[in-house]
Design a protein that fits this description.
Length: 220
């Protein structure tokens, strides 16, 4: 199945270079490239791609706010890969909190860019939860729990909370199964229930939610 992409970057040469990289893979197709965040949102709503490759700093609407608007429609698609020259933690956290499914620097090798798009298009998150946890603990963990997030947390059963705790700790499904003495199939069921009940897109969002809801505290 062909993965349909939109490229959003304010530099035409960067967009052209990315187009050449991605279209070298016969399973990837760039359906549009745009130069600002507002155009990215409009194109995503009109074309419904699988993945939007989003720059952070763009005119009219920055990549973080554009990401928030792109994913606001729900339904799982499109998913957003944030691609930028900036590797500061606050940009990573801002992008992930807005709903991005991954974060990669522009100096990544072409093979890494292609692999990242396939990873995100398949429904997985690009960053390992354990890595994301370090960013979230630094930024989300320094604030008081969000009341709305805490209310959504109350919707989970005791077992689902246990699973969420282990997700926040960066445990894989296999590790969660071993720790709780249940099957991996049962873990997958619980993970899907957690994501559905609290309205999350993926495991990265679950890590952020764990801190914002007060379920986990820095160092806890």
């Amino acid at each position: 199945m062909t993965v349909r992409l939109i490229l959003a970057d304010d530099q035409p040469l960067v967009r052209e270079g990315l187009r050449k990289i991605f279209e070298a893979d016969p399973e990837l197709s760039v359906v549009a490239d745009v130069g600002d965040g507002r155009a990215a949102v409009e194109a995503a709503r009109r074309l419904r791609p699988d993945v939007v490759v989003m720059d952070i700093r763009m005119p009219h609407l920055d990549g973080i706010e554009a990401t928030r608007q792109v994913v606001a429609g729900g339904g799982g698609l499109p998913r957003v890969l944030v691609l930028t020259t900036f590797d500061l933690d606050e940009y990573v956290f801002g992008a992930l909190r807005a709903g991005a499914s991954g974060f990669l620097l522009k100096d990544a090798a072409p093979e890494a860019l292609i692999s990242a798009v396939h990873t995100i298009a398949s429904g997985d998150a690009l960053l390992a939860p354990a890595v994301t946890r370090l960013v979230v603990e630094k930024f989300a963990g320094t604030r008081e729990p969000n009341r709305h997030a805490a209310a959504r947390l109350a919707e989970l059963s005791e077992r689902e909370r246990e699973v969420l705790l282990l997700m926040v700790a960066g445990r894989s499904n296999r590790e969660i199964a071993a720790g709780l003495f249940i099957s991996e199939a049962t873990v997958k069921t619980h993970v899907m229930a957690v994501l559905r009940k609290v309205g999350l897109r993926d495991r990265i969002q679950a890590v952020i939610f764990g801190y914002e809801s007060g379920l986990v505290t820095p160092g806890g």
